[in-house]
Specification:
By secondary structure, this protein is α/β, with parallel strands linked by helices. Strands 7-6-8-9-13-14 form a six-stranded parallel beta sheet, with helices on both faces. A three-stranded parallel beta sheet has the order 3-4-5, sandwiched between helices. Strands 10-12-11 form a three-stranded antiparallel beta sheet.
């Protein structure tokens, strides 16, 4: 699928369409322009795209609001892409453009599953591209010159993009039709200070027949994990490291946003959750720690990362947030509590060792899940104890078995 503004980029889209089609691949050209006349005939017209968005070209033109028109056409193009995918007719998406065209393409690409090829050639690809990538596997190519005509530079860049999407789409189709069965996918959350726990749990889950995807709990990692859960890609979640909640509550730099720890609960995906690294809030270099925290226990992890020890009030608030999210689960869920410490630096003799603060977090979490269906395992062990980690992995296996058996 090639979604683009064919009134301004028609020549460029015709160029890449012909190159991709020359590789023996069927191409669906989708027009997302509003005002002008398309330079090349589309397989899905702009009128059809607007209709898919619940509006019309006449309505969009009459409103004379470019931002609204772009958002509407992006929604329509997304609906077209989702329909093609549902019917087994989509093996990849290639788009070209500046800021407007890239935003439309991003809306389409971010709605599609991980693994389906997505290539975006953009004038915006040399700066902060987080808005275009989101939490999915978009491949970005910098256009070098503006996407405005075919010249000696654009011919090479666009030619490479066409070759890339053609090769990726061919490989995607081969994978999709392969007969081999994949192992069930399980997500695990990890931080540097919980690595031993997650490694031990991962090894145990692999012994039990699962493929484990480990996500680094740095904000983007948590968001990506939540996105994959919501997209139906994961059979279970071993969320040992929920530290991003601490940053969300207290104001650290590694928050995954308010939706962290919600996707599995909403989707009914089995999950085992723990309190990994909830003893800390993350900041950048020590000089960037907000002045209001100047009197707090700070640990310089490295030149780029400073950790702040949570206090009892913060810990209680974090625990309550975690507990409420677990209590809202529609599927099987368990909370594993490590009384012996929440991270590598929160252990007897360690710089963040403060059992009374951890207890405030635990007590608030337990109060929030009381009377719900959350199973609680209260252990005296440290989170990085291998037996604690393996116990959590085994518990997730049992919960997943319960779901697959329908009981």
């Amino acid at each position: 699928m090639l979604p683009g503004t064919l009134d301004t980029k028609g020549r460029e889209y015709q160029f890449v369409r012909d190159l991709v089609a020359g590789q023996g691949i069927d191409v669906v050209l989708v027009d997302v322009s509003v005002l002008g006349t398309p330079m090349v005939d589309a397989d899905v017209t702009a009128a059809a795209v607007a209709e898919a968005a619940g509006t019309s070209l006449d309505e969009l033109r009459a409103r004379q609001d470019r931002g609204h028109a772009l958002a509407a056409m992006a929604a329509g193009a997304r609906a077209v892409a989702e329909d093609l995918y549902a019917r087994g007719r989509l093996s990849g998406v290639l788009a070209l453009g500046g800021s407007g065209g890239s935003s439309v393409a991003a809306t389409v690409m971010q709605a599609l599953p991980v693994g389906l090829p997505k290539v975006l050639v953009s004038t915006m690809a040399a700066g902060d591209v987080s808005a275009y990538v989101g939490t999915t596997d978009v491949t970005l190519m910098y256009s070098v010159v503006d996407v405005a005509g075919i010249n000696s530079i654009s011919r090479q860049v666009l030619g490479n993009a066409a070759a890339a999407i053609a090769g990726m789409a061919t490989a995607y189709e081969s994978r999709r039709t392969a007969a081999a069965e994949d192992r069930p996918l399980v997500a695990a959350s990890m931080f540097g200070v919980t690595t031993p726990a997650v490694e031990a749990a991962r090894e145990r889950l692999e012994e039990l027949g699962y493929e484990v995807l480990v996500f680094h709990a740095t904000g983007s990692g948590g968001r990506t994990m939540e996105s994959l859960v919501a997209g139906g890609h994961l059979a279970g979640v071993l969320d040992l490291t929920t530290t991003e909640l601490a940053d969300e509550v207290v104001g650290g730099v590694l928050s995954a946003g308010p939706d962290r720890l919600t996707a599995a609960a909403k989707a009914g995906v089995p999950q085992v959750v723990s309190l990994g690294a909830l003893d800390m809030v993350n900041f950048g270099p020590k000089s960037t720690v907000p002045q209001r925290f100047s009197d707090r226990m700070l640990l310089v992890h490295n030149d780029a990362v400073t950790l702040m020890r949570t206090n009892a009030a913060e810990a209680a608030q974090i625990g309550a947030v975690l507990g409420r999210k677990l209590a809202a689960s529609t599927g099987p869920v368990a909370l594993h509590i490590p009384r012996g410490g929440l991270s590598a630096v929160d252990a007897a003799g360690g710089p963040f060792w403060a059992p009374e603060v951890d207890a405030a977090c635990v007590d608030a979490a337990l109060a929030a899940v009381a009377g719900s269906g959350v199973e609680v395992v209260d252990s005296a062990r440290h989170i990085n104890d291998a037996d604690f980690a393996r116990s959590a992995a085994d518990h997730l296996h049992r919960l997943m078995g319960r779901t697959s058996n329908g009981s």
